Amino acid sequence: MSLDKEMQELLVNYTIESAELLQVMEEGLMELESIEESEETINAIFRAAHTIKGGAGIFGFEHIVGFTHVVESVLDAMRDGLLKVDSELVAALLPCCDHLGILVREIAKGHTEENSDLTKQSEKIIAGLQPFLDNAEGKQTDSSQVASQSIQVQDETHRVQNIECDNSKSGNWHLFLHFNPDCLRDGMDPLSFILYLTKLGEIIELTTSTQALPSAGEMDPESNYLIFEIVFKSDAEKADIENVFDFVRAGSQIHILPLESKIEYYIDLIDSLESDDMQLGELLIKCGVITRRELEEGLQAQQAKRERQQSQHIGDILIEQQTVQKPIVSAALEKQQRVKESKAIENQSIRVDAGRLDILIDLIGELVIAGASASLRASQTGDMALQEANAAVISLVEEVRDSALQLRMVPIGSTFSRFQRVVRDVSKELGKDIKLHISGADTEIDKSVVEKIGDPLMHLVRNAMDHGIEPAQLRIERDKPAQGNLQLNAYHSSGNIVIEVSDDGRGLDRDKILAKAVERGLIQVGETLSDQEVYSLIFEPGFSTADQISNLSGRGVGMDVVKRNITELRGDIAIDSTPGKGTTLRIYLPLTLAIIDGFLVGVGESSYVIPLDRVVECVALPPNENHDYMELRGEVLPFIRLRQLFNKKATLSKRQNVIVVEHLGVKAGLVVDKLKGELQTVIKPLGKLFGHVQGVGGSTILGSGEVALIIDVPTLLRQQEFASNTH
Amino acid sequence: MQTLALESELNIFNAAEQKPRLLEFLECDEELEVDLANVSEIDTAGLQLLILIKREAMKAGKKLKFVMHSQAVLNVLELTNLTGTFGDQVVLSSDEE
């Protein structure tokens, strides 16, 4: 591979990765607006920006490096708590993401040199960030003043460290003991504690500090003023050493720190710990540098601070309380970071070219067909052993098929979360306050479906926000909360994926739609229609109620296109609406597009496949039934005679069967001659020539080599409905 | 030269009484000696008193020596590493040993 080509591939990877990172940044920023504990998120955003910058540096895209650097500075200030995270800041950062996206896309297109238009834009956006940076710098100086105030405390630590002389090399703990002034009165003598300490190990060095002893006049002979600092050598655990001072802990300052010279040791220890995602405190306890009690104390302090609306990292608190030194905390934090990152890498998926995956799926399709053929032959031989062997192969093939299809499945969450941004932007545009709720983000759906569902969803979301949810003023008048709610939900339901877009807006206006439909000649005056039928009128091409036009309407697809897109995916859409309460649009999509479980039936000489997830039951057709309906457990079941539908002339079989199918709650029967059982079906699309054929969803090849048509139940039912309506 | 011989205990139980006594003793001469031979028990409170009067003597420019340390006193000084030093500023002469 030439260097150029290699570079080219790296570049492709860089652009793909950057796009993902930008997604992470954007999601993170959206999250920042809604959560309180933002540290993790800011870190994630920062890392993403940093990685983009790093990659750009490798390729020498100075303009990206320069731009990202400024963004990174702002993020850094946020990380350090110098900048308060508010919607203003988020609003300034979001355009940065967008702009970075543009810059990266330019590179993906092969325009690696910066162009002046984009540079101007970069400068403009950076100028927007400048006030925040200035602000952060101002705070920086403030905080350095604070730092100088806290030097007093630091000093003490310094002094603690001062007594480390040569002897200390053989010690491993550093004790700082300032017993509470009343301990003598309480009958506890510091000296006896120190004496007891010698049972646990060896005192290498001890300094008695008398500085706290006041002048003769003020000195209370019964109070303790002495402070001891000890370099201690012991094999005991920190907790054991700590236990020595259990009785005097209240009111005393007792710090047990690992010696400076041992810090390296602990850092190494932390590095070598086999840990999964551990909390900082747990990590420190595990390596023995702090005790559980100290951690709990620290956590309490953190809690107390939180109650006072301050937030501080537990690591910083532990350092402040002189429980542990900074380098160790830093090492532990780094370790944590590494663990997280390695986890993130583990979680990352392998990037596979979609084309290769398609080839695999195709091959498995062929395998399914070949398997069916083999098993047919086997059953004809009557060789039991062969049939058993075949059955095993078939069941494995089924598993392979399922897991291969699983490869194409992706959670719908990433598609959904993109709408956070859309909802945010559009609601600003419209001047409405709308909150997006997402549920069922884990629901998995075929990748090709995900790609195609984005546009229709976008349209539905925009529609709901624009037409569905009322302006705040109107909402308040109608006794609704001023904030509108939009919900995206996904779930699996009997072989379908259901995606719901619901709002709590005004609902559809039945009368208005009816009037419009009459005006357009879609229905006759006086025709009675169910709510469902009325609502589905809005999917008619060009159907729009005139007073609803805004700058959002007319953007891209209309409702009819939404409908068409979904139908192309062999899906369906239904509307549920309550006036004044809201509207829910449900999109039904098949789980997969490539291979399905089918029910094979025979009509005349031909075979047909009915998708198994549509089949409810099979019943025998009552003899001499001349109507196109029958009674099924007290209900009328209309049916379609496939024999008539497909013009089969062959002699009638003695016994006909009815397969009850269901779609969107509508049941109907399909009359067939023979039931041939279940089989896996690889859906092969019909050629373009047959594109207009209704009621047939594709074809498949049977084990015998025969071709069977796959019946498209929803279309067939609609046709049937339509036919019965017009008659 | 005045000598004060401390008896039996020097601890939290009598520290309150010993403090004025020791301070009073400081007043009586320029060169002073404290005999610790009979101090059978000493604790932090007692140690603090010794440190206190040593320091007060220093401040007043007087000479104060502890002599005839009992084993109990030696043990405590040993433990607290004050055998050679009494506080940071005070350098004790070798005759204390």
TrEMBL record, chain A:
The modification Phosphohistidine is found at H50. Keywords: ATP-binding, Chemotaxis, Kinase, Nucleotide-binding, Phosphoprotein, Transferase, Two-component regulatory system. GO terms for biological process: chemotaxis. Residues 396-593 form the Histidine kinase domain. It is an enzyme of class 2 (transferase). This is Chemotaxis protein CheA. GO terms for molecular function: ATP binding; phosphorelay sensor kinase activity. Signal peptide: none annotated. Residues 585-722 form the CheW-like domain. Involved in the transmission of sensory signals from the chemoreceptors to the flagellar motors. CheA is autophosphorylated; it can transfer its phosphate group to either CheB or CheY. It holds the Pfam family H-kinase_dim. Residues 3-107 form the HPt domain. Its EC number is 2.7.13.3. InterPro entries: Bact_Chemotaxis_CheA, CheA-like_dim, CheA-like_homodim_sf, CheW-like_dom_sf, CheW-lke_dom, HATPase_C_sf, HATPase_dom, His_kinase_dom. It comes from Methylotuvimicrobium buryatense. One of its GO terms (cellular component) is cytoplasm. It catalyses: ATP + protein L-histidine = ADP + protein N-phospho-L-histidine. CDD domains: CheA_reg (cd00731), HATPase_CheA-like (cd16916), HPT (cd00088). It comes from the Bacteria.
From TrEMBL, chain B:
PANTHER family: BLR2341 PROTEIN. Gene3D superfamilies: STAS domain (3.30.750.24). Pfam families: STAS_2. It comes from Methylotuvimicrobium buryatense (Methylomicrobium buryatense). Residues 1-97 form the STAS domain. This is Anti-sigma factor antagonist.
